[in-house]
Every structure is written in structure tokens, then in C-alpha cells.
Amino acid sequence: MELSIRNIAAWLMSNFYIITGKINNVKKSAKNGEILFSVYFHNPSKKLFEGCVKWFLKNGFSIISTEELNSIIRNNKPIPASSVVFTVDDGWKENKENIVAVADCYKIPVTIFVTTSPVETGESYWWSYIQKAFDKKLTNHSVGALKLVPNEQRMQELERIKPNVPNDRDALTIEEVKTISQSPYISIGSHTVTHPILTMCNDEKSQHEIVESKKTLENWTNKPVQFFAFPNGNYTQREINVLKSNGFQMAFTTKPEYVTLNSFKSPFEIPRFDVLEDVSFAENIIRMTGVWFEKRNNK
Fold it and tell me: Distance between CA atoms of 51 and 299, rounded to whole angstroms?
């Protein structure tokens, strides 16, 4: 954890919520089947991911798969007591050792949503190029700013700076995706082809990103790809319609909310709580149990 003023303050606040029993309240709600925790990661260290796994297991939780969650939703079953779903976005190369190895060791299910182009080409994720260029003052556009412009404009800036920025592989390889998909504890889901902001794409591009990623992953793994995660959490009804018409069963957002029976009415808008790589474990406890977001929503 970086010892910034922000992180120190968040650590103190997080420990206060833990000590005063707020965590116990949400654990009780989960035990009663009122809520289900949906937690997602990007590129955590092995220590962080294993710590999260051990925390949930120590506190009496069952880690269920996305397939189990889908079955519960489709068959109108009640929320299982004390349950959590783990998902991972992007398909970082470190996931093999830091996610898959831990999942295999603890025999717990995890779904990794893979962005196919960086896997296939070996190129960095687009935001890695932009961040490097921004740090070197080769562009005035930050990653956040480029998420807000039309996709064509973002791509133009990306292609402009690429020749001047080192290319480092960020993602798993095709062979690694094939290998980890054989684990009984790992499911592969779609996270588009290039990880664009889908709402900034035209109709044709948005559909291509969704449909082609599914085809590619199914070709690599020889397994059906039924689940999707929206890049950056951005989507409209247009994207949901494409998912429905192309064989997807469920999609995950980045809305920081509990999964409830009401969530089951919208299986293509499943909420998730994020775990961050640069904050204290105490903060991540109150993030992945939703307490962090409850306090902010009540302000």
C-alpha cells in the first residue's frame, strides 16, 4: 500500500467500520440470504487475491461460480446463504500465477473475463500505451479523458503515440488461455476484443467487439462463452440486446451494489464490488463487502 494521506485516512476509516461491527451487519444479511457479494479484480498480487479468498472462507462464505449464479437466477431460486462470486477483468498475464494457481489450490471457482486482441497480438492494453505516453508528455490526453471521446478519436490518438512507446505484453497468451480454461475452477468470459468504451462506439463496432470476442474465445477453449463483463462498466440497452441475441446468459457491470433478488430481474446488469491493488487490506474488506459504498451513497 502506498502511504499517501488518502490511503492512511481510508485505512483508519476502514478499521473503524470493522471494529464497530458494520461488517457483522452485512455478514448477517448475507447469512440470511438477503444479499450476495459479487467481487471483481483486475491484476492483484497473489498475496492480495489469496488474502481475499481466505477472508471469505474464514468468515463462513461459500464461493460460488458464475454458472451457479446463472442457474439460481434462471430457475428463480433463493439467494444461497453466505455466498460470494469472484470475477476478474481483462486477462492480465499475472492472473495465471496470482489467480488461477490460488483458485486451483483452494478449489474455488473464478471467472476471468478476457480481452482477446492483446492476448492474440501481444500488444499492451490501450490504456497502458496512453499512460506511458502521458507520463513522457507525448500526449496531452489522459486515460480518463480518452474514455469520454468517440472511439474513432481514441483510436487515432492511440495509433499516433504507439510508435514512440515501448510495447510490453500485458495479457495472457493464447496457449495460457487454453490451458487455464481446462481447470475445473476457471471459467472464461468475454470482455470484448479491444476493450473499448462500448457507449463511445457506433452500432457496428459495438456489435463486432461483443460477437467476435465470443467467437474467438470459444475457438480457443472449445467451450461455450456465456458470460460478459462491460469494459469500464459502460453500456446501454443496445449492448444488452446484442448480448441476448448472441447467446450470452449474463453480464456484469461495475455498479457497486449488492446482488439481491431484485438484481435477478436484470441478469445482464449484475453489480460488483471492486478490489483495488494499491490500498490497504482493511479498505478492501469494506470495499468487497459493500460497506465502503454504503457510506458514500448515504452521504
Answer: 30
Cell output for 251: 453480464
In whole angstroms, give the CA distance from residue 121 to residue 8.
40
d(CA 237, CA 251): 12
The one-digit pLDDT tens for each residue of the chain (299 residues) are 566 888 888 889 889 888 988 899 999 999 999 999 999 999 999 999 999 999 999 999 999 999 999 999 999 999 999 999 999 999 999 999 999 999 999 999 999 999 999 999 999 999 999 999 999 999 999 999 999 999 999 999 999 999 999 889 999 999 999 999 999 999 999 999 999 999 999 999 999 999 999 999 999 999 999 999 999 999 999 999 999 999 999 999 999 999 999 999 999 999 999 999 999 999 999 999 999 987 555 44
What is the CATH class of 5-123+169-297?
alpha beta
Residue ranges in the chain assigned as alpha helix (H) = 5-19, 22-31, 46-58, 66-74, 95, 101-106, 116-121, 126-135, 143-146, 151-161, 174-180, 203-221, 237-245, 281-288, 291-297
Q: Which of 184, 192, 197 is nearest to 216 (CA)?
A: 192
Q: Distance between CA atoms of 84 and 93, rounded to whole angstroms?
A: 24
Q: Largest Cα–Cα distance in the chain?
A: 55
Antiparallel, parallel or unpaired: β 83-90 and 186-190? unpaired
Q: Are strands 273-274 and 83-90 parallel, antiparallel or unpaired?
A: unpaired
CATH 3.20.20.370 in the chain: give the residue spans.
5-123+169-297
Q: Of 4, 50, 89, 19, whose CA–CA distance to 278 is shortest? A: 4
